[in-house]
Amino acid sequence: MELRQLEYFVAVAEEAGFTRAAARVHVAQPGVSAQIRRLERELGQELFDRSGRTVRLTEVGAAVLPYARAALDAVAGVRLAVDELTGLVRGRVAVGVVASSAALDLPDLLAGFHQRHPDVEITLCEANSDRLVESLLAGRLDIAFIGLGSTTPQGVETQVVADELLVAAVSHDHDLAARRAIPVTGLRDLPLISLPPGTGLRSRLDEACTAAGFQPRIAFEASDPQVLAQLAARGLGVAVLPNSLATARAAHLHAIRITHPELHGRLALSWRTTGPISPAARALIRHTRAMLGTAGRGE
User: Residue 138 class from Cβ within 10 Å (0-12 exposed, 13-18 middle, 19+ buried)?
Assistant: First the structure.
């Protein structure tokens, strides 16, 4: 039994497919399949049910999975202990970010880290906040920039790096274009344009509407805030946007302050609070917090 076989096994189980697992471990799909077959022959049992469209764990596979994860965690712990003692900063760090992160100069931040630690490979992915938190907790990401709702997700530490007022943005010929402010209850039954569920902005909107006793009527969803602004500018509804984005498009949009309560969109640096953290990940957290002016709390 080899460590790489356990690594491939865990990847296939978590990704529910050989192709996605192969992309995750950076190995050709036939290579992953061959190693899993070797592991199954050694154990004398099939670990996956391959009969359906998706790959599923067999009963034996489900029983083996926690032990495989524990073995890989133990090896990671050994490497981490050695690297901590020798002061090495190498390896790989994985960063996640939401699409609505215009307030963050991420390329400059990552370039600065690369200059300080050229032996560390950096990867970057974009997803909604809920998926990023899930990846943090699973150890697939080392840090992530997420949009926060009213509560902090369990299992992660966060540091707010941007806090901005959210507004209702409409075209200049919209019926609401003469308004300067609108209460949350005034959004009832209006066709709203918003980021999708799982984003911090959408969480704030949904929470406020639920507290006011109604469900928002979402006419359009898009993961790019720029698209939301364009839809509102064409008169297709009321977009809930960060104030800076609405005012930057003042020629096409009128921004209306949302009140009772005010809504704020918060962008936060986040990292998990449990499990081993590599020296490279620790260095990235320190660098990021220093660049963002948030140093001061323990990693």
Answer: exposed
Range of the domain at 52: 3-86
- 214 and 273 housed in the same domain: yes
Residue 139 backbone zone (phi > 0: left; psi -120 to 50: alpha; other: beta): left
CATH no. for residue 168?
A: 3.40.190.290
Quick: pLDDT tens for 140-162.
899 999 988 777 888 899 998 88
Q: According to DSSP H, which parts of 44-123 are helical? A: 59-86, 106-116
Q: CB of 258 within 8 A of CB of 196?
A: no
The conformation of residue 292, written as its DSSP 8-state character, comes to T
Q: Looking at the DSSP assignment, which residues form a beta bridge with residue 145?
A: 97, 269
Cα–Cα distance measured from residue 283 to residue 215, given in angstroms and rounded to the nearest whole number:
43
**Percent with pLDDT over 90 in the chain:** 59
Residues 179, 198, single domain; the answer is yes
**Contact criterion met (CB below 8 Å) for 130 and 256:** no
Rounded (5°) CA angle 83-292-125: 65
Average pLDDT over residues 273-297: 77
pLDDT, position 283: 87
Confidence (pTM): 0.66
Euclidean distance between the first and final Cα of the chain, in Å? 36
The number of distinct structural domains making up the chain is 2
Is residue 32 domain-shared with residue 9, that is, in the same domain? Answer: yes
- Tokens 């009321």 belong to 238
pLDDT over 80 (residue 275): no
243 in Cβ contact with 181 (< 8 Å): no
